[in-house]
Amino acid sequence: MKQTPILFSTPMVQAILNGRKTQTRRVVKGTALEWLDRDGFVKEYVALPKNELCPYGNPGDFLWVREEFYQIGHWKEVPGVKTKTGKMKWKFVPDNGEIRYSDNRPETFRKGRHHKDPSTSVWHKRLARFMPRSACRLFLKVTNIRVERLQDISTEDVRKEGAGQNVRQMSLYGLDAKGIREVYATHFSILWTSINGEESWNSNPWVWVVSFERTDKPESF
Predict the structure, then answer these.
(1) What pLDDT digit, counting tens, does each position of 86-97 carry?
(2) CA 218 → CA 56, 58, 67, 134, 146, distances in Å?
């Protein structure tokens, strides 16, 4: 089965760990978007596993979660390599294999390279995109893939996204199903824009709707 990395923010990782999040939406790009917008294929066809268009795999495939993590290490210069702005290139060097996460983070840590003291070995907060496979603690099994417009999210799917826990039940009093969905969708839009920006919500893009369940580490990982 395919094993694909996927990034989640710390609040979303906590929602997965707490069992509140079993679904995620990611913007459709590339060939799949061309099929939808240019070639006029229906969304159901685009999502078929045989087309292999979803970058997050198909039902039965695995996702390994990249999240913010903490590691002891130091920084060293990369000889002969410059950044795009012409500055010296630096890289982070782990000093041992200990990894911590947001729920057991060290009391003190650095968020990046200390310009006056880069060589001291201390705890550092590392961005999710830098997480190596060996540091992964959270594995997901894809249970369903479909395509839809972002703003078409249902009330039930807002809950599956882990964004419905803050909806005050009193705010739903007297509303019909459409009104209730609008309340939930508003809460999801707040979550979405905090990650992707307001314009991304307003443009109502096509999204991959990836449903998943937590699973053990695959034997072949």
Answers:
(1) 999 999 999 999
(2) 16, 16, 18, 13, 24
